[in-house]
Structures are given as structure tokens and as C-alpha cells.
Design brief:
single chain, 15 helices, mainly alpha, 0% strand
């Protein structure tokens, strides 16, 4: 009998997810350090290129080389790569301008934007509960960004306001990616989505060469290669976590990234979280958790409805 692709092992699922989130924040810290010497597009190239060998070995070990290398919807992968690469460039650029924990908190706007885009593009109905949760989260994002929207000399010269807007734009693009992937999973294997994103991001990032690529210093080069390898491992772990636990159970653990970001930002960049960041992040986190809870409830209701209407066996 063929071994099932999923198992219910919540302890392992949570462990994989937490390790993946930590590694993603380590990757972001590496990029933040490297981005002082190289432009964002160049950082995206190295991060994507060096994630590919890790992903390829993972596919080979799982016996999914064919599924990972043979796309059914090539144009869909190109669009997914375009949106995702643009989001990565904006994120990397923003990381060089604002603290790591602040960028992480603003990035939590993604699930809020996803709910809005799902209503606009997929026709999903948004009731008062989810709409209130989205509003709560977006108010939190505004609170986090408020100091960056002032017109004082320090904010303008540091580029912090631009960095905050870049991270917010990246959050919107990631929400668009999630909507696009929802459509792709109907015809594409997860392995193909993972592999072709790294491939298209590596290719598309080359288009930024005219915008100021430089010969990286040894330190910057090692940081970017490390970001690629760590990012590849993190992608594998987060994908593997969903083999052992439901997405609704694991989703809240994404917010552990704020804790990791605060620690890494303080230790490596001497960045102390501000009151605005803490208050706003709390509201964003509350809104996100409410959305996750509501999505889980709706999923359970749909499952019960399908079970009630399913034809009975003989």
C-alpha cells in the first residue's frame, strides 16, 4: 500500500513551522546586512539561485523530480514569479531602510490584503466579522507606519518612509501571490510551484542588472549565499510542516516571526522596538488571528455541509 502523503503529527508540524519561521527571519537578517553593499535585485538573484540546489535535492529525495520540473501551466508560473520577485525586491529594499521588527510587523498586512483581494478577484463573500478583523489589522499597520509618514528632516533623509511603503507594497504583492497560488494548485503540483518560483525569481532578477549591480564584497557574497541556502531549507520545512498538520492550526505560528525579528534586530543591528511598533503589531496580530480563526470555522462548516449532503453508501 502506498504511504500517505499526510500524517496527523501536530508536534512535528509545529516544530517544523517554528524552525522555518526562525530561519526565514535569519535569512531576512542576512539580507538586511548584505543590502548595505548590494542593490535589492542582486540580493534577490543570489537568494533565489542558491535556494535552487537545496530544493532540487529535496525533490529528488521525495521522488518528485518529475512533478517539480514539469509544469502544467507555464504562464501561471511566470506570473507567480513576477509577483513574487517584485515583492522580494521591495522587501529587500525596505529592509535596508527600516528596522527588522518594524518591517515584519508591516508585512503582517498580507492576510488583510488577501481577504480583500479574494473578495474582489475570487468573488468570496466577506461578512462583518472578517471585515472588522481586516479593519483592526489595517489600523495596526497604520499605527506602525505613522512615525514613518511624518515630514521631519530625519525621516526624509533616512528614507524610512520609503522603506515602510516598500514593505507595505510587498505585503500587497504577496497577497496577490496567495490569490494566484490558490488558482494554480488546481492544476500544479506543490513541488512545481516551489521550484519554478526560485527559477523565475533567479531569471527575472537579472533584469535589474542595469539598475546598479556591483561586485559584492566577500562578506556580502557570503551573506547572500547563506540567505539563499537558509531560505531554501526554510521553504522545505514550511512545506513539510503542512504534511503533518492543518494549515489552520499552523497559521498562528507565523506571528512568532515578530519575536524572532525583535531578538535578531536587537542583537545584530541594535534595533529596539518602539511603542508604536509594539502597539500596532499587537492590533495587526489580533486581526490576523481573528481572520485565521474565522477561516477555520468556515472550513469546518463547509466540511459539515459536504458530509451532510454526501450520498450514503449501501
Amino acid at each position: 500500500m502506498e504511504k500517505p502523503h499526510t500524517e496527523h503529527r501536530p508536534g512535528r508540524a509545529i516544530a517544523f513551522k517554528l524552525i522555518a519561521v526562525f530561519l526565514f527571519m535569519c535569512m531576512a537578517a542576512m539580507v538586511k546586512a548584505a543590502i548595505q553593499d548590494v542593490p535589492p535585485g542582486e540580493a534577490v538573484f543570489f537568494r533565489s539561485l542558491f535556494a535552487m540546489p537545496v530544493i532540487f535535492v529535496w525533490l529528488w529525495q521525495r521522488g518528485e523530480i518529475r512533478e517539480g520540473l514539469v509544469p502544467n501551466n507555464f504562464i501561471g508560473h511566470v506570473w507567480r514569479g513576477l509577483f513574487g520577485t517584485s515583492a522580494m525586491i521591495l522587501t529587500f529594499g525596505g529592509l535596508g531602510l527600516i528596522p527588522l521588527s518594524e518591517a515584519t510587523a508591516i508585512g503582517y498586512a498580507t492576510p488583510m490584503f488577501t481577504v480583500i483581494l479574494a473578495a474582489l478577484m475570487l468573488g468570496e463573500r466577506i461578512r462583518v466579522f472578517r471585515l472588522s478583523a481586516v479593519a483592526l489589522g489595517l489600523i495596526g499597520v497604520i499605527i506602525v507606519m505613522a512615525p514613518r509618514l511624518s515630514l521631519d528632516a530625519e525621516t526624509m533623509t533616512s528614507g524610512a518612509s520609503i522603506g515602510a511603503m516598500m514593505i507595505l507594497g510587498a505585503a500587497l504583492l504577496r497577497a496577490l501571490v496567495q490569490i494566484h497560488v490558490r488558482k494554480m494548485v488546481a492544476s500544479e503540483h506543490t513541488a512545481a510551484i516551489v521550484f519554478y518560483f526560485s527559477l523565475t525569481a533567479t531569471t527575472l532578477s537579472l533584469l535589474t542588472i542595469p539598475f546598479g549591480w556591483v561586485w559584492p564584497t566577500p562578506n556580502a557574497l557570503m551573506l547572500m549565499i547563506g540567505a539563499g541556502l537558509v531560505g531554501g531549507v526554510a521553504q522545505i520545512l514550511v512545506t513539510s510542516s503542512y504534511r503533518f498538520g492543518a494549515a489552520s492550526m499552523l497559521a498562528p505560528f507565523d506571528y512568532s516571526s515578530l519575536i524572532f525579528a525583535a531578538i535578531l534586530g536587537y542583537v545584530f543591528f541594535a534595533e529596539a522596538p518602539t511603542l508604536n511598533m509594539a502597539l500596532g503589531a499587537g492590533l495587526v496580530l489580533a486581526g490576523g488571528v481573528l481572520i485565521i480563526w474565522r477561516e477555520r470555522q468556515l472550513g469546518m462548516d463547509r466540511a459539515k455541509s459536504r458530509a451532510a449532503t454526501a450520498p450514503k453508501g449501501e
